[in-house]
TrEMBL record:
Heme chaperone required for the biogenesis of c-type cytochromes. Transiently binds heme delivered by CcmC and transfers the heme to apo-cytochromes in a process facilitated by CcmF and CcmH. GO terms for molecular function: heme binding; metal ion binding. HAMAP family: CcmE (MF_01959). The gene is ccmE. This is Cytochrome c-type biogenesis protein CcmE. It comes from Rhodoferax antarcticus ANT.BR.
Length: 147
């Protein structure tokens, strides 16, 4: 084999290795990527039915029901609502009327089964996506009430 052919084979082999590595990294990244949806987006059918995602908003007042370690509550963005169930210990800061982000899957009936529940960590914090969704829902409600 001539030196020129060896050099070409090394370059082609290196490019193939880089391409294969990039494929594996991007594939792992895609499978671990978790998207955020609001109750309004879930109602419109934008959320996937067979993948894990996050839903965020406020815990509706009077919606929390506990049976042993299973908690059922409603997450709202003031426009739409999603029923959520979670089995486990809720965070200490979890309260009705406060912000929450739940991670899990949506079943075929539109019920969200959470595998993880995150509560806001102080009075002023809300995830940016949830705050934006709440602002958009309030604008939509104000527009409806003006008509």
């Amino acid at each position: 084999m001539k030196p020129r052919q060896k050099r070409a084979a090394i370059i082609v082999g290196g490019l193939a290795a880089v391409g294969l590595s990039a494929y594996f990294v991007l594939n792992a990244f895609e499978s671990n990527l978790v998207f955020f949806f609001t109750p309004s987006q879930i109602e419109l059918g934008e959320a996937p039915k067979d993948r894990t995602f996050r839903v965020g908003g406020m815990v509706k007042e009077g919606s929390l029901q506990r049976v042993n370690l299973t908690s059922n509550f409603v997450v709202t963005d003031t426009a739409k609502e999603v029923k959520v169930s979670y089995t486990g210990i809720l965070p200490d800061l979890f309260k009705e009327g406060k912000g929450v982000v739940a991670q899990g899957k949506l079943d075929s009936s539109g019920h969200f089964a959470a595998s993880e529940v995150l509560a806001k960590h102080d009075e002023n914090y809300m995830p940016p996506e949830a705050q934006h969704a709440m602002d958009q829902a309030q604008i939509a409600n104000a527009t409806k009430s003006l008509k």
